[in-house]
User: Fold these one by one.
Assistant:
Number 1:
Amino acid sequence: AMHEGSGAQGSATGTEEAMNNRNQGMGILARLCCPTTLPPPSYACPGYVVPACLKDTNYNVVLMNLLCIMFGLAESIWTGTALSAFLYILTDDSNTMVGYVEAAMGITTLVFALPVGYLADRYSRSAVIAIGGFVNFAAATATVYATYQGAEENGSWKQHYWILLVAMCGWGVVGGIVNGPAQALYADSTPQGSRSMYYQYLFIGWGLSSVAGPLLTIVIFAVYSNDWTLYMLRNVIFAGMAGEVVTGVMMLWFRDDAALNEGEEESDEEKGPDAKKKEEGEEEEI
């Protein structure tokens, strides 16, 4: 038994060293955004911080669930009707110009999917996700500037239109990173036997927040004004941008070293009390 304990301890030490070496490969950006002062990789979030279904869950898993809730809420506020209506009025009722901007986001996501995935696998997923956070900030700044100036009718509408077109390309990159490297790191941070359960939590949160976004938009129109002017639509877009900035901040804090090794089980802190009791009972029988 002592030999087995020593072997297990040596294996754990080897695993820890391997994860530390893996963390050394993180880029400077990831190190700045993911400082070692954070809790240990095996840190399990307490129940008073997160919903009960995520109690004592891996750090990356909790962070990704919170990110998806905020991301779904923010996008559903501004990327649908509000943006299309704003562009339609800005471009003097041109459906074609609206279509170009709407298509830019999807095309950019498609074009950058492979490069982003390669960089995440080759170097660091958390670093790529953090870069996506900074792209988020740049796209949000450009969107706020263009919609503000467009609503104030300062300068040519074409200038604001092209800024929004570029900003939507940035949002396409952000969406590709959230749906690509971020979800890949999420999968690596969940035990294989429970992965479907965690994805169920993820998509439920995303779906509910995507429904809440349009409802919040209705509230904004009801409280302020139901006039679909550039000024009013701009305020709705600003509300969405506030959520996007929070999403960008969350993207800076993922950790490669919190991912589980292939086939690795949850730590004792991450296992529920029922699982712990079952293991203790088996040890007593032995």
Note: Residues 1-6, 18-31, 33-50, 266-286 have pLDDT under 50 and may be disordered.
Number 2:
Amino acid sequence: MIYTYRYALENKNDVLKQHFYYHTKNKSQNELLRKILTKKKLKNIENVAY
């Protein structure tokens, strides 16, 4: 999503919340994927990492 500067100023909390959510979501998915990759017992990585 591309925000205009004015929108970001008027809705600062909204933008920050979405930014924070996006990064934490990606971080948790990456952590999950890393845990899965380190466990070699799991065969179907695609099914577990969603």
Note: Residues 12-38 form the longest helix (27 residues).
